[in-house]
Amino acid sequence: MNRRSFLGALTAAGALAGSTMSKEMAAEAVRCPDRPDGLTPLKIDAVELIVLRGHYTEEAGVDHQPQVNPLDVYDVYRRAPYKDKPDGTREVQAEAIYIRIRTAAGLDGLYGPIDREPATIVLEDLQHFLIGKDALAGEVVWDQMYRSNRQSRAGIFIMAISAVDNALWDLRGKYYGVPVWRLLGGPSRDKVEMYASALGFSLELDEVRKRATELKSQGFRYQKWFIGYGPGSGPEGMRKNIELVKTLRETLGDDYEIMFDAYSGWDQDYALEWARQVEQYRPYWMEEVTHPEKLDSFAAIRQGTTVPLAAGEHFYGRWEVERYLQARTLSVVQADPEWCGGVSELVKVGTVASLHDVRVIPHGHSLRAAVHTILSQSPMTFPLGEYLVTKMRHYHHFEKNPPVVEQALIAAPTGPGFNVQLDETKIESQKLLTVS
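-> structure tokens emitted (436 positions)
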């Protein structure tokens, strides 16, 4: 199957095929008296992609504020100022991809949702390579995947490695009957504090005040807001960006932290000018102010302002993090365990960061891998997690037991592995993609 036909398959409805191992089956596999000993491989028997489709209902006309992005320097790509326009509800077609790794012993690992692009790599490049590998030998399997392709160090290939790595952590957690955080050496605490990420929230100042106050009442001591304007929007855009900071500080007071994400939509001079004008409001950080390859710009910005710099969701692996930290560019590393190489690599990123006394606050593309890693590591290095408020409303739509945030805290999970349980009642169609 070529990549184009695969991407077509990802959007096609298929007959219900395959299902995840039940809790009872997983428990029986863990208790199995003749399970492999420490010297016997737990061989990978199959690698599958499960494409799920369904639907959900959401409020219409709200929470679609665009953030500044690199294309905004072009008039044709820069969108008009946004306003919330509540308009009842709408039906949304939901789709999600999960990766499942089966073993000859009958135990499986499940993780997701994962992105389409790395799913393509899993299907075309990694499935055959993984068959027969020892699912318990996580470091060896990771290293072999990394060495198997000259493009593995970045982009969608290492994102595919991340998906496999996380599924194998789930499998090993089931094998030993413990949560992933326990295998990693935790817990370092019984709950993880999350910061609220306000992606999609309107930047109309009255709405900002309202939403910021709501998040405060929900227990969030840290809020991150997404900048709406960049160099292409001229002085008016800069003024709006500064007003956002001022409004949030006045609304929340001095005891709450505010962060801002520019999604690589600025350049060095723009970032320094914004920082100069908002330093008085004490932003907790300014994030991804320009493209991640511009290391010298990050260094110059950090030297030119007291506002801390954060970046790293688009870093791939410990080597890139080390280059940034050697150049003294960052106060916070935001590596994502679904993009940087999986839980295995995120732990190594944390070790690198700790050498420089820099914090790691994982990007919140998803929650399970990040939360388990945070729970296993020192609060000095891993103090917080990210909770994307609007995204997480439906991100785990197909699961029975999605992560739950209460008063800005996620309690330490108790099930084996990542304990992903699919909810068959929400799955309208399912397609299984695998190598026969």
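The longest helix spans residues 155-176.
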